[in-house]
User: What shape does this take?
Amino acid sequence: MWAWTLWMLPLLCRFGLADLPAKPENISCVFYYTKNFTCTWSPEKEANSISYTVRRTLCYVRENDTCNSTSKAGSSCSFYSSLTPPDIYIIQVEAKNAYGIIKSDITYWDLTTITKIEPPKISSVKPVLGLKQMVQIKWTQPVLAPKSSTLNYTLRFRAVNSTHWMEVNFTRSGKNEEEAYNLTGLQAFTEYVVALQCVVHKSRFWSGWSQEKMGVTVEEAPHGLDLWRVLRSDKVDGKRPVQLLLKKAKGAPVLEKVLGYKIQYFPENNSNLTETMNTTNQQPELYLGNQTYWVHVSSYNSLGESPEATLRIPAIDEKLFHCIEAMRTCLTQDQLVVEWQSSALEVDTWMVEWVPDLDSKPLAISWESVSHARNWTIQQDELEPFWCYNISVYPMLQNRVGEPYSIQAYVKEGVPSEGPETKVENIGVRTVTITWKEIPKRHRNGFINNYTIFYQAEDGKEFSKTVNSSILQYDLESLTRKTSYTVQVMASTSAGGINGTGINFKTLSISVFEIFLVTSLVGGGLLILIILTVVYGIKKPNKLKHLCWPDVPNPAESSIATWCGDDFKGKLNLKEFDDSVNREDGILKPCYSPNDFIDKLVVNFENFLEVVSTENPGKGCENILGGEKNEYVASPNRPYCPTVSTEIPPRGPQCLSSGMLEGICPETRERLLPPTQGCGPDHLCEEGAPNPYLKNSVTTREFLVSEKLPEQIHREV
Assistant: This one.
């Protein structure tokens, strides 16, 4: 029984102690001069509600007071009664909850070592006239600092464009409300930021930092310059323009405010022609002759001038030396590195020049001198991404400038902003030419590595062809005749590609060559036919003439007008025409006539005129030439020829005198005058127009007489 009780007793004690509050530890006290006395401890927070009592006891007189707090208010408590150093206090903290009270260890606090005061207030930071590289800081002591106490100060400072702070420590007696400190070792004409904090002597608690204040050191006379030039090819009034580029020497601090630049230049062979120009422009232009010139430039301010920078401008016809053999660029993690190789070991100074390569007006040229090295490095964030830069390196041997070597570079490449502008030319049956323009430089965003042509027939498979960046046109072949196609061109950089606008075209159904071939064959055939015809006409001109221009008998040369009566019958060989007209099944068969048959039927117009004009001159002329209504005139060689009225209505029948045909065989008469109804016994009627042969003869005319003549004309032969 006793053994079981002894075994359970530690467990009961443990459960009882677990309900008590945690013992306050890590007690720290600060004496905020003339304000309060504050103590803090841990733990800072408790799960249960706990009340704290801080008991403060003065060591020498054993006076004590208390300060109460709760766990909800935090683990701190402040005494607001006035205290004066160098008293020593005993501090003990009690924690109490529903299960009991627990006390902290006793701690001792000397007010001299725990006093904390407010930060000082800086009134001004100004340079001292006549003293370089120095500023004077003035401030006011804290109002609640202990009187006649020694104060330790820490002054920190940095340049405005720097993030690195530097500190200076010093001590002041604290008797004066206004204090000052001269900060030396600074750079001239540089703006600085300063701040102060202080602590009571022997105290371990520093005040906070004062509000920051800025000041500028006194400027100095200008330092050296870096000088470069840009030679222009065009001339103005016979002189070549040269643009000078001025900037602070590399590595030289900006210790002054430059008021202007003094430029002196003269021909190399005549220094008496020196010209001087003052300017505030850092890129002034000079107009020089064709010979070599020397240029001297210095900057100045109110304190003096900088050392001169000298540059030699070569003559316009001077041959530059060449020593750079190759150059390349590479990108590191955050830098662009340019390296070059040179065959001239004596050249150890180089001028690097870089400028953005854009379609717009060229921007300002940047440049930098490099010595004792054959590479140049620049931070990537100093260059624009997706911009192409032209980088040139000039070798410099003493005062001479050699021939530059140039290269292009991007610090970062991207996909082009727009695709190529595409056109279709020379559309054929199975071929077409695709042309495109280069993407503007500002939209390339990188080096164009290649172009890819995508083309696809309507409802067909897509094909592609890739060419290098120097090609701006491509001939597509093996296309389908009379087919619609869609084509577009993609431009690609190392970061990716982008397509241009798609265009449509349709191949031809027949090519120009095929049209030319057919035309050539037809034209060639006609030409050969013409040549053969000409050759045939040369060899056999009569046959060709008879074929093209058949002989037409001249009625004026006919002798039928001299025939009359039986003589006319005798001269006609009618037997030759017996079998000329044969009718079979109502069809008229051809009748063969003698060779002079037509001539015998033609009236000899000239003989007739002679007879008429002889026997009846006046009347003949009247009958032939005048009158509205006329009749045919009988032949003068016939003893008796009855007249036949020849007044013929349009397209009416034509009647011929029977006397003219009485000697002609019936078959022949039937051929000459087909039978018609309504004609008298002495006349034959023919429907339709007169004989076309007679009507179309050049010299054939119908002889007409007036209706006023007698019905018949009798005359003797």
Remarks:
- The chain has eleven helices and 46 strands.
- Residues 25-115 form a domain with the Immunoglobulin-like fold (CATH 2.60.40.10).
